[in-house]
Amino acid sequence: MSAAARDTTPGSSPNAAPAGIDISANFIRHAREWEEANPSGIHYYVASAVELPFGDATFDFVSAFMSLMDIPETDLVLAEVFRALKPGGFFQFSITHPCFDTPHRESLRDAEGLTYAIEVGDYFRRIDGEVKEWLFSAAPPDVRAGLRPFRIPLFTKTLSEWLNLLISSGFVIERLEEPRPSDETAREWPGLQDAQVVACFLHVRVRKPA
Predict the structure, then answer these.
(1) In which domain, by residue range, is 64 found?
(2) Which of 58, 81, 143, 199 is at 20 to 30 A from 89, Cα to Cα?
(3) Are strands 172-177 and 201-207 parallel, antiparallel or unpaired?
(4) CA-wise closest residue to 118 among 105, 137, 127, 129
(5) DSSP state of 68
(6) Quick check: 194 pLDDT over 70?
(7) What whole-number distance in Å separates Cα of residue 77 and Cα of residue 116?
């Protein structure tokens, strides 16, 4: 999760003061090493999104990239983000699309191996912590051969649950996007062709009322 605050005191610099957090000390160590080698003014913290180490109304905006769907206490995360945002600030995040990242999912392919439909099922089935192992399918085989699979817990919610959680937390929903790769991108990266048939990701922007 990342956030940025702007110092608005008279005579202050207009530059943002960004901060990044992750619950993994190893990830933060790599981020700090990168910051030392490529200074950009970002401060990194080992912290949980359910208990942000920042004061009330600190940030102009907060961003979470592909992480919220892996956190069971979504309501606590949203409450913390709402608390840490300044009035009028926005929260932008991306998650796997709840309508198509379901317990049952299968790509249906034609004779040429192109996906023409996605079969989904158990949309309303609630998964609460079941562990899944996976690797990036787009990684070259020689790279995957030397990697251990990721192990992540799964927590499923329907689309209405996500939207209602945002509304109940006090946010105003501003924009939703479902990115789709271009034909050119799908030709270069065939593994993305599924995302031309259904949306794999959901991008959301919400705002704390001023």
Answers:
(1) 2-207
(2) 199
(3) antiparallel
(4) 105
(5) G
(6) yes
(7) 37
- The number of beta carbons lying within 10 Å of the beta carbon of residue 196 is 16
**Six-digit token string for 202:** 């959901």
Query: Hey, what's the torsion of the CAs at 130, 135, 138, 143, to 10 degrees?
Result: 180
Cβ 91 vs Cβ 65: under 8 Å? no
32: tokens are 């700090």
Pairing of strands 2-6, 150-155: unpaired
How many distinct structural domains can be found in the chain? Answer: 1
> 188: Cβ–Cβ under 8 A, 6 or more apart, which residues?
none
For the ranges 23-37, 130-144, 167-181, which has the lowest average pLDDT?
Answer: 130-144
Structure tokens belonging to residue 196: 């031309």
CATH number of the domain encompassing residue 82: 3.40.50.150
Indicate yes or no: pTM above 0.70: yes
Tokens (6 digits) for 115: 């996906």
Q: Evaluate whether 92 touches 61 at the Cβ level (below 8 Å).
A: yes
Contact 4, 61 (CB under 8 A): yes
